[in-house]
Amino acid sequence: MSDNADYTDPDVEEAWLIARRAEIDAHLRQSGGRYGGISDWPFWCKAPVTSVWGIESLISPGFLGWWAIVGDHPPECISSQNVKDPRAALEAVCNRWIEALNALHDGRPAEHGTSEDPRSIAKKLAAQIAAVRACVENDALWLVPEGDEEDSAAEVCDNDGDGDG
Predict the structure, then answer these.
(1) Which of 101, 59, 97 is nearest to 78 (CA)?
(2) Which of 46, 53, 134 is closest to 86 using CA atoms?
(3) How many CA atoms lie within 13 A of 18 on its CB side?
(4) For the whole model, what pTM was predicted?
(5) 54 contacts: CB under 8 Å, gap ≥ 6
(6) What is the pLDDT of residues 55-82, one digit of tens each?
(7) Domain residue limits, the chain
């Protein structure tokens, strides 16, 4: 998608979401870990910034085991064990990124061992944090439309707490 894409156009947003789901699938396959199915659609999204997807638990099929976060940043996965909704998942990933940014500022190497210049990594990471944190902090993005309460992420994600992560 180009930077000039109109993400208010449902077709553009749908194409973006399909590409993000494929990106999550590729990330999970590359990691070599076993995982359950990826939700067909995100639990929450703000195209083109980020999206939050559910990954089925292998221990308790039919229940959420992991959150996958993907967008205008590298994909991240986090256990749902102590993270019960998409907003909390984004917050937890932001906190993980802040720890990584602090490590870079302290002169420690990047977590994933890259040859990229640490200043360049830090600049990208700071931009990711700012963009995703803005989504987390914007209450208007998290309102559930009237009549959709039964489909709210809080209820859909209310699982048995196994989080197999």
Answers:
(1) 97
(2) 53
(3) 7
(4) 0.82
(5) 38, 39, 43, 64, 66, 67, 68, 80, 157
(6) 999 999 999 999 999 999 999 999 999 9
(7) 10-156
